Structure prediction request, 250 residues.
Amino acid sequence: MASLIARPSSRLPSAFLSQCSRTTIASPFLRRSFATPTTEKEQPRLRLGSLAPNFKAKTTQGDIDFHEWIGDKWAILFSHPADFTPVCTTELGAFAKLKGEFDKRGVKLIGLSANDLTSHSKWISDINDISNTTLSFPIIADPTRHIAWTYDMVDAQDTTNVDQRGIAFTIRSVFVIDPAKKIRLTMMYPASAGRNTAEVLRVVDALQTGDGKGVTTPIDWVPGQDVIVPPTVGTEDARKKFGDVREVRP
Prediction:
């Protein structure tokens, strides 16, 4: 079947152009658990297409029910190991500067860090000062790592990589969640490596373009570039739908 490439057309928008039950086997390969100071629980399996776990939390903008907070928008939930750490501070400053671009795409941003609200409030002032910005999205307070554990945002590099309470450190995770509350994309970084905010924005464009136009996007794709027509769509049907179509492999 032919491989088809759809080229930008004036008729198309610019963005287009282009829980698991508890196992009775105690094998470490079949169970994942996270030790809290008082208990050990089974960890949810989160895959692309899974319903994002709901939770209630305190944030810098008030108490939220996560699913109610998302509403009918897209959402990006991203975690941080701790307040006032240099890498986290640069990341939140960068996301704050790009918030307008996420707003245009109907995407809500929400951060998470393993400290309390008092610490978060002081940290936001620090972020705004260092990055010369105004951070206006909420940051979740998760001092017990309960939400971090639920979303598997914890570090398992070795058995000693825990805080003074014995709780595993939070890593740099990104969850892109759609209006149906489904997890559409995840990224995970170690605490030592900062994220790329432009890439987070790019994959949102790719996901929304794919959903809206029934296409897929090639490597390094950005809006305005060619997209790929699924092989289930014939050449003539593709031309009727998209206009300018290039057949790569007949």
